[in-house]
Amino acid sequence: MTRSLIAAVGAATVALSLTFGAVASAQPALPAPQAPADAVPSDEPRGGGDQLAGGAETDDSPLAGGIGDLADAGEDLAELSRLSEESGALGEELHLARAELERSVADRDRLERAAGVAAAAAAAADGTARRDQSLVDHLAAMRYRGGDTGATRAAVLAESPRDLVHRLDALSRLSGATTTALDASRAASVEAARLRENANGAADAARVVAEDTRKRMEELDRRSDEMRVRMDEVRRRVDALSDSQRALWIGGPMVPEGYVAPPVDGINSAALRTALTRLGAPYSWGATGPSEFDCSGLMVWSYAREGKTLPRSSQAQAAAGAPVAPADMQPGDLVIYYPGATHVGMYAGDGLVLHAPTYGVPVKLEKVDAMPISGIRRY
């Protein structure tokens, strides 16, 4: 399988998605989706990754050996293969960039809300500090107007022992109130200063994230424009292929002879069975089904039908889940391709992978090692 058959391009913006949606009507006619070939008799083993060494029978199509073999069929197809691969890689990067932008926007909004809450708390603390200071000032004025408020003066002015007790009690309450008010005022001032510092820090953090978000949006817009140009070029070239070139571009059959879908024994194999119902579905940049897909979109749709949420891009899918050794590969595992994790398929047993290759090529089964594997993940 050529590297050209690994394209998967993200719908980075809503406008871009709408643009891509019009592509389907322009694509070459493809076989209708098929159900899994359960009933096809086969003596071949199915299931785990022990088929990697031998795999399925060799695909005799000129696309099976990669770009070098494709070059033998014509420089135009070889160049188209490279362009398609680059478009697919950029598309998956755009899926990832969109997810990162959404997180950045959420962080910005969260920090801006936190800054607003902190500013309100600081304002309230300032009000408390001013109120407590006003009380301190009022008590101090009372002491000043009353002159010496000590116990000696109270004893001199008292008209009777009972009056002395009352004067001393009032003196104690006034002194205590003054001390309490002063302590409260100081504490409120310290708290107000702390909250103002928090509010300023939250506002600064929100500004930094907001600026980062703005730059991400600008970069996403720029790369989306680049993606649109690349897609238009791939679409134009594929649609202009001759019948013989188109046969080479599509490659071998959607289902190798003798393939039998593995039995359903859990969510992963159920997701594979669901994905197999999309055999023959057309490739569409940024699509997640149910009738059109890009490579990571097929994985997302198939697992979502079984109640499991997968990340949107092949790079994110390569980072999540649990790593799996090639010898332990099981139906439903995601097979990540190329060093940049720019393509993904689903292991289908019998040494085959189910994937959405590229524009003009339907969802199909290929040899799992037809492309360089960079990782295997289980969800």
Automatic annotation (TrEMBL):
This is NlpC/P60 family protein. It comes from the Bacteria. Pfam families: NLPC_P60. Keywords: Coiled coil, Hydrolase, Protease, Signal, Thiol protease. Gene3D superfamilies: endopeptidase domain like (from Nostoc punctiforme). Residues 203-237 form a coiled coil. Residues 31-70 are annotated as: Disordered. Belongs to the peptidase C40 family. It comes from Dietzia aurantiaca. Residues 1-26 form the signal peptide. Transmembrane segments: none annotated. Residues 265-379 form the NlpC/P60 domain. InterPro entries: NLP_P60_dom, Papain-like_cys_pep_sf, PG_Endopeptidase_C40. The keyword Coiled coil applies.
